[in-house]
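Researcher: Batch entry, complex prediction.
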Amino acid sequence: MNGAKEPGSFRLVATLALTGLLSGLVLVGIYLVTQPRILRNQAEALYAAVYRVLPGTQEIRTFVVRDGKLVVYESPDGNLPEEQAVYAGHRGNGSLVGYAVPGEGAGFQDTITLIYGYDPSRRVIVGMQVLDSRETPGLGDKIITDDEFLANFEALAIEPSIVAVKKGKKVNPNEVDSITGATISSEAVVKILNESSQQWAPMLSPQDETSEVSRNVPRAEP
Amino acid sequence: MSPAQNPKRPLDEFIKGLWRENPVFIAVLGLCPAMAVTNSLENGLVMGAASTFVLVGSSLFVSLLRKLIPRAVRVPVYIIIIATFVTTVDFVLAALMPVAHKQLGAFISLIVVNCLILGRQEAFASKNPVGLAAADALGMSAGFTVALAMIGGVREILGSGALLGVPLFGDSFEPWAIMILPPGGFLTLGALLTLFAWIKERRAKQEMRRQSGSDQSPVQRRAV
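Model: Structure tokens for the complex:
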């Protein structure tokens, strides 16, 4: 190796400090450059999911909860709000398709994050898409890809509660045909939907939240 | 490692990573990413590309700074350099290829602890000029990427019945789900290691037969 004599400890500490400092500066720079794009990717992925779980949607409006009420959220930069939010989907003529609600819960291996479309006038779920999961490839990840499974969520009643049944046993509107070989993942999705819909459904009224009246008083206090 | 007075040619250093000292099939290094993310060809290629960027970048820096880094703290300095490149890859992938980034998940950050990368800094880049270090890093990365692509390709064909997401067989093909699960990684890697060991041994025998009586065959040089 190079260097016949061992350098003093000051040199060692200085080398490490300088390396760390330079590394930190480089990373801050890269973070600043990439962060806007990463946030935009997240927003785009979420909006794409909203269009899918609320068929017929042409315009999306973001709502956040303030003081127990839904309030329109105007994003300053096109990014998603940091607090819990729901997304109202509207048709071209302004009528409400429903609300897309993100939810998450424990899956077979890791947290499953999903978004579902809820139609408050019919009290049914009209679409569901998994956003993030680590379910077993080839088995549990069918909750993302299996068309038959996803078809369960095209008109799924949330009352009295959603129930996962064996594949092919679905008769009632509140039942979901599980995926063979992925029972735990299927039940995990149902559990997330139950918990989330029970929390959100009372807040989501079938009236158009974005009608002129409510839009003019965005911070309506109780 | 061979002594410094031996005139090494960059091309040699590049080629050795592909075959003679292939990091996965011969040196059996970097197995965690080689098995964890290779359930499809695309994932293998993206992981290979990310590792290539990290290995080449950190080799260049380590080689450039090799006379400035005190021996006693060289490993932490290498790790900082490697971690900087890995974090860069992580952010850039998240910004430019969000789908692939999501698929590879934590394994991008785990490139930091890929022993292949630190191993090349310690064994090669810290002792050689920039040109050779770059050739070595490129060769090793290419060998690593090819290995990951082979494992990923085999597993995707058998486990999903597709290659790069394009279905290869008709509906009659039932994918072997086990191949995209962890056991499939072990099975595929084991089969490929066997294949490469067999090829290597056969070549060595042929070489010996050809020059029987002469010195030891160069093919028998072991990887470090």
